[in-house]
């Protein structure tokens, strides 16, 4: 579906992206892990048409994207901040994309109602954005993107501002809805566990160079992802917290325990 070939970008003679090539099939979610400043956001902005590459080609379903303006690429770019319309209700925020496409009212009501139920937002349909929690606002933003069926969804650390529990819930929700609707996405993050949770494909971006992994095992074993070290850390913690029980010994403590019972 998406083909990126030899993509490069410089800012003030500083390389940000270096000869990036990738393929993404229909319905796949490419999770790109990388530290701050590695070029993740620049990659998404080039795909969205908000930045122009120095070299390289982009094609989506065989269409050359470079001459296509951002508003005609049929992509949605989601940030950490939901950027909802403050004067519109949850229902109308989600319905906005259908209204500007002049979809019939009965169809708008059906699609939005179904999607709000799927996103667990039905009871909040008439609330304003300021009445929602951070996780709820991000779900509304996700719904507004999903309702117009974008060809490609670009997510720039969308759950980065959420607390740990809400973030985990949003990762699971995104994965479930993505699979159900066959959404094709590129999801950039600096959290290795998030990458593993949401991605059907995995990559690592470092100093503008993208490494793609054929398997989850390769991704985990790459020392740059730090996953193997983290797993080892938690295994050590678990062993410390739950040591192997020592079999009862004759005499000693056992004899004293019997004496205490007798007394």
Automatic annotation (TrEMBL):
<feature type="region of interest" description="Disordered">
    <location>
        <begin position="241"/>
        <end position="263"/>
    </location>
</feature>
<keyword id="KW-0410">Iron transport</keyword>
<keyword id="KW-0408">Iron</keyword>
<dbReference type="InterPro" id="IPR003439">
    <property type="entry name" value="ABC_transporter-like_ATP-bd"/>
</dbReference>
<dbReference type="GO" id="GO:0015408">
    <property type="term" value="F:ABC-type ferric iron transporter activity"/>
</dbReference>
<protein>
    <submittedName>
        <fullName>ATP-binding cassette domain-containing protein</fullName>
    </submittedName>
</protein>
<keyword id="KW-0067">ATP-binding</keyword>
<keyword id="KW-0813">Transport</keyword>
<dbReference type="GO" id="GO:0005524">
    <property type="term" value="F:ATP binding"/>
</dbReference>
<dbReference type="InterPro" id="IPR003593">
    <property type="entry name" value="AAA+_ATPase"/>
</dbReference>
<keyword id="KW-0547">Nucleotide-binding</keyword>
<dbReference type="GO" id="GO:0016887">
    <property type="term" value="F:ATP hydrolysis activity"/>
</dbReference>
<dbReference type="InterPro" id="IPR027417">
    <property type="entry name" value="P-loop_NTPase"/>
</dbReference>
<keyword id="KW-0472">Membrane</keyword>
<dbReference type="InterPro" id="IPR015853">
    <property type="entry name" value="ABC_transpr_FbpC"/>
</dbReference>
<dbReference type="GO" id="GO:0016020">
    <property type="term" value="C:membrane"/>
</dbReference>
<dbReference type="GO" id="GO:0015697">
    <property type="term" value="P:quaternary ammonium group transport"/>
</dbReference>
<keyword id="KW-1003">Cell membrane</keyword>
<keyword id="KW-0406">Ion transport</keyword>
<feature type="domain" description="ABC transporter">
    <location>
        <begin position="2"/>
        <end position="232"/>
    </location>
</feature>
<dbReference type="InterPro" id="IPR050093">
    <property type="entry name" value="ABC_SmlMolc_Importer"/>
</dbReference>
<dbReference type="Pfam" id="PF00005">
    <property type="entry name" value="ABC_tran"/>
</dbReference>
<dbReference type="InterPro" id="IPR017871">
    <property type="entry name" value="ABC_transporter-like_CS"/>
</dbReference>
